[in-house]
């Protein structure tokens, strides 16, 4: 091999290693910013055979309907707690902040936060459904059968109890 070809080969190898290293670092950085979407039933029961239930401390987004009669506001602060339900169960959500204007019982919401002990989501952001004509596709798919039974029929598992 002549020196010119050798230098081109080394340059190509260095560029290839740089591209691989850069791609790896970008994907690793983005991995920590991913919040997976779950419905209340998926948090309680898991997504299926291949998908496990989320772990305590995991960042996630939960979507469902606000259970009528479940909204409780702390009169001394901005803390609010409510239940989000779907056809398979209900999950408690706590949020410290100002809720969107369209937030109300019986409406669809998406809460983004961290799963805590006892299947309680500590939300850092709450988004309310903004229009009757539009629902994000992932929320629409996850909530197709939300209105099959009344909200009063749901039982939220007590903290510390778990089903296998």
TrEMBL record:
It is found in: Cell inner membrane; Cell membrane. Residues 129-164 are annotated as: Disordered. One of its GO terms (molecular function) is heme binding. One of its GO terms (cellular component) is plasma membrane. One of its GO terms (biological process) is cytochrome complex assembly. InterPro entries: CcmE, CcmE-like_sf, NA-bd_OB-fold. The chain crosses the membrane at residues 9-30. The keyword Cytoplasm does not apply. Residues 1-8 are cytoplasmic. NCBIfam families: PRK13150.1 (NF009635), PRK13165.1 (NF009638), PRK13254.1-1 (NF009727), PRK13254.1-3 (NF009729). Belongs to the CcmE/CycJ family. Heme chaperone required for the biogenesis of c-type cytochromes. Transiently binds heme delivered by CcmC and transfers the heme to apo-cytochromes in a process facilitated by CcmF and CcmH. This is Cytochrome c-type biogenesis protein CcmE. It comes from Serratia oryzae. The gene is ccmE.
